[in-house]
Design a protein that fits this description.
It is built from 22 helices and 16 strands. The chain starts with a strand and ends with a helix. An eight-stranded mixed β-sheet has the order 1-8-7-3-4-5-6-2. It is of the alpha/beta class. The protein folds into three domains: about 1-25 and about 150-235, 3-Layer(bba) Sandwich (Glucose Oxidase, domain 1), CATH 3.50.30.10; about 35-145, PtsI, HPr-binding domain (Enzyme I, Chain A, domain 2, Orthogonal Bundle), CATH 1.10.274; about 265-570, TIM Barrel (Alpha-Beta Barrel), CATH 3.20.20. It is about 45% helix and about 15% strand.
Amino acid sequence: MKKLTGIPVSKGIVIGKAFLFLDTDFAEIPRFRIEKKQTAEEWARFLAAVNEARENIGSLQHVQKSVTGEEDGILNTHLLMLEDTDFHEQIKRRLETGLQNIECVVWDVAAEFSRKLAASPVSYLRERAADIADITGRLLNILLNIKKPSLADLTEDVIIVTRDLLPSEAVTMNKRRVKALVMGAGSQTSHTAILAKAFEIPAVFGLPGITSEVTSGDTLIVDGGTGEVLIKPAAKTIEKYQVLIVKAHEKKDKQEALRDLPAETADGYRVALNANIEFPEEMEQVLRYGAEGIGLYRTEFLFLNAGYAEEDEQFRAYSHVIKAMGNKPVTIRTIDVGGDKILPNLRSVEEKNPLLGLRGIRFSLAHPDLFKVQLRAILRASVFGVVKIMFPMISGFTELETALSILEEAKRECRDKGAAFSERIEVGSMIEIPAAVVIADILAEKSEFFSIGTNDLIQYSLAVDRNNEQVGYLSQPFHPVVLRLIKKTIDEAHAAGIKVAMCGELAGNPKATAVLLGLGLDEFSMSAPQIPPVKQIIRRTNIEKCRVLARNLLMCKTVRDAEAALKEGDG
């Protein structure tokens, strides 16, 4: 037996047979000189390949909708990349100046795009390299007449082992037969990772060389919670994991039995448990876990490719989610880019310290036309359900007032065009900066709710980059400063008669559930699979006990003291 440990991406334990899914090897792409008069013919071959790729993706979208009902946002992204004018222009320029066959031109241009993206310190851009590879592979397979096997045709239960599974392959694979994913590449926030979580397929990524360690048919144990992959385990090891699988299923069944029960303490204190989403593909999972609403709909994915942020495209994406939720609220966060999330289609000045630069609401206010397009799309979609809008990274009253005035402009434009929208849209502020906490009483005058983004609140209040290996350990959610900022936000909001939600990672941390209840939090929002365990804790506790715990933690001077108080409270 051999044990490897990679990146835990999607929880769950699976024992099964490996299916080695190898990439097409483009290392030996034909490369030869052509005459200038042949460039027109090569360009025509490229356009024909683009058309065929577009038709293939269209067919995949049709099959995907008819079989699974999953949203095809990723395939739409690839369609837009195929039409990207910059990509086309660079291909044509390289073809006419380099005078080489179209296959190697496509490979070279795409490789250049990918290198720049992969070398970026920005995670969002690094992950787009997978989409470039996906489209490039599709075009080269067509140009070279290579027929790649399809994971949609699987007839047996398997554990996919591959160097890298492209997003389009993950979208269209036979999910009933794929029991786990093991990849050499990948990250926790890649498209494929998000899809694995949405489809509840256990996954471990980040295992370079895995395809040389495994042969198709090998027995594997995959633990998506720990990141462990066991190759050819002994019978005793298999028996041990079979027991763990049974226990995990029993635990999950108990938690999912709470699906339709309220998030209410034993003594009757009620809160709301909502879900965070980024892609419409996640809606099936959200409903299955009994979310009472969407507490955070991240909209950045709509803006990652040139041309994709068209108003009608946004309208369709928002409408899909709102319709799926019925009469349950959907809180849409306006575009939150900047910092570690950069739009490749908007050229901007390189910032020396982007986390303190043009991000969140600042970006929207600097691009009011783009902002109004998004607001109009949200307004139009609001007729299909209960919609809330929240503005990210609010640091001052003027920002909030300006954002609200642009929202009013968007409403006027909708009225002028005869576009219907709901008049009952609540608008709130995200509390992510210490400055917003200090003036929470003032922001409450113009906000109908607050939503605390703990990821950034911790980062800015403690001056810690959690992705920095040297100081990441200082990103401590139970730091006295963090707890006091949360408490002040809740107190100021309640004094003004508005509710407070939390959509940062702390909301889905079971260790924090009792503390947040005791601090007075009204709504928790987290990834859908986190809802059952958090609900289970809520229903087992009582609010007075939680309030005592919160008071004890607020008096702690150090994180160590707070963690000790937490353990004592659990006891």
